[in-house]
Design goal:
- The chain is of the alpha+beta class and 110 residues long.
- It has one domain: Winged helix-like DNA-binding domain superfamily/Winged helix DNA-binding domain (Arc Repressor Mutant, subunit A, Orthogonal Bundle).
- It has a three-stranded antiparallel sheet with strand order 1-3-2.
- A hairpin with a 2-residue loop joins strand 2 and strand 3.
- The chain starts with 23 loop residues before the first helix and ends with a helix.
- It comes from Streptomyces vulcanius.
- This is ArsR/SmtB family transcription factor.
Length: 110
């Protein structure tokens, strides 16, 4: 049974948006921020589920980083899951590519 008391240090499971439900404006808005673009690029170069949220070298604090990941989840770009005390990430490359063909490739060019 899930812990709904909010105590005990348990985090709520992240909510994910299906890329098929994302508008092009939502997707473009999500990737317009330089920090989020850096997160996407670092994830693209990493194996799925190998990067915890704290492993990214970005110039923002924990709360801002959490917000950036929330925006990326909302745009269908990132999937997260908890592994013990860590929250790990994967880029939803195939799903996002099916929704917006070619867009991710453009974003990953430097």
């Amino acid at each position: 049974m899930p812990n709904e008391s909010g105590g005990g240090g348990h985090r709520a499971a992240p909510v994910h948006t299906d890329p098929a439900e994302v508008s092009v404006l939502t997707a473009l808005s999500a990737v317009a921020d330089p920090v989020r673009l850096q997160l996407i690029r670092e994830l693209a170069g990493s194996d799925d589920w190998s990067r915890s949220c704290g492993s990214f070298d970005v110039p923002v604090g924990k709360a801002a980083l959490s917000h950036h990941f929330s925006v990326l989840r909302g745009a269908g770009l990132v999937e997260q899951r908890d592994q013990g005390p860590r929250r790990v990430n994967r880029l939803r490359r195939e799903e996002f590519e099916a929704r917006f063909p070619g867009l991710l490739d453009l974003l990953l060019r430097e």
